Amino acid sequence: MSQKAVCTIGLSFFFVSYIMFSQGSKLAYFQEPIDFAHWFNLIGAVLLFSFNRIFPKNKLCTVASFLTTLGIIAHVGLCTIDFIMWSFGDDDVAREALSEHISNTPAILFPFIIVGPSLLFVGLALHAFNFIKSNTISALMVIVGAPAIGYSFFILKNGTYMVLSCALFVAGLFLLLYNKEKTVTV
Q1: Quick check: helix, strand or coil at residue 134?
Q2: Which member of 30, 69, 75, 183 has the greatest number of CB atoms within 10 A?
Q3: CA–CA distance, 84 with 28 (Å, rounded to integer)
């Protein structure tokens, strides 16, 4: 399977997971018999690693690849935490106790909840910056979509805006993936 195909599958899984996350209280529907939303997110994030191989090799992409990789690792950790939370079922007391414990443990909270997962978006946005001159619209879709996802989720707490932001981000990466020029200069 080609790297572009792996990237496309990863984008698809990632986007579908955000559609599921946007459902909010209806999320329980996507958690039976397994936590589909987080499995899709996990698989999608891991497959997005292929973008590190697709995009050109230069200093900016070296940094972007490093940040993308850290973000993927953080997504794996975040999904693991969410799988553990899911495993508590209806035991809200145990889930709250774990949540409080994580909140009081900076070595888990910052790399796997607050900062780490964002690095995936930052890394892919840096990759997109390589194409700001050759594919301006596609690159800007990724660069604007990346922080918009976080803003809509953490600040606005709006699932619709989150999905729209993710659609912008994913569409920009898809366009860059299939329309990028062979030579790129930063």
Answers
A1: coil
A2: 75
A3: 15
Q: What is the pLDDT of residues 23-44, one digit of tens each?
A: 876 666 567 788 888 999 999 9
- Cα separation of 142 and 64, whole Å? 13
Residue range 60-104, pLDDT digits in tens: 999 999 999 999 999 999 999 999 998 888 888 999 999 999 999
Domains in the chain, number: 1
ω into 33 cis (within 30 of 0) = yes
In a domain, 109, yes or no: yes
Within 8 A by CB and 6+ apart from 149, the residues are: 18, 121, 162, 165, 166, 169
Looking at the domain assignment, is residue 185 inside a domain? Answer: no
Residue whose pair of structure tokens reads 């890394």 in the numeric block: 123
List CB contacts of 74: < 8 A, sequence separation 6 or more: 111, 112, 115, 116, 117, 119, 120
The residue range of the domain holding 35 is: 3-179
Give the number of other Cβ atoms within 10 Å of residue 144's Cβ. 15
Taking the C-alpha atoms of residue 153 and residue 1, their distance in angstroms, rounded to an integer, is: 34
How far is the C-alpha of 6 from the C-alpha of 33, rounded, in Å?
Answer: 26
CA 134 to chain centre: 25
